[in-house]
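Much of what follows relies on a compact textual record of a protein's fold. The record below shows the convention in full:
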Amino acid sequence: MEYRQLNHVSIYNADFIKLSIAEGIVDLIVTSPPYNISIAYGQYQDATSYQDYPAFSHRWLRGAFRALRPDGRLCLNIALDKRALGNS
């Protein structure tokens, strides 16, 4: 996990599935999770089955929403996998 503290701002570069952080303290989450379209990330296997991907997404989203303040914001960058739509 990478962590930076700048004045009253804390910045984490971490996996919400593994991150241990207090509940309801995060104002903003900006994330681009693995897309499950076989991108070579290095340590993360990005080619799980379509059946397993929703469970993975649920785990990290649960961690993210647990950490968010009630008025916090989640900015999510996702890719459109055209192969899943049959438009290769």
Q: What stands out?
A: Helices lie at 53-67. The chain has a mean pLDDT of 82.
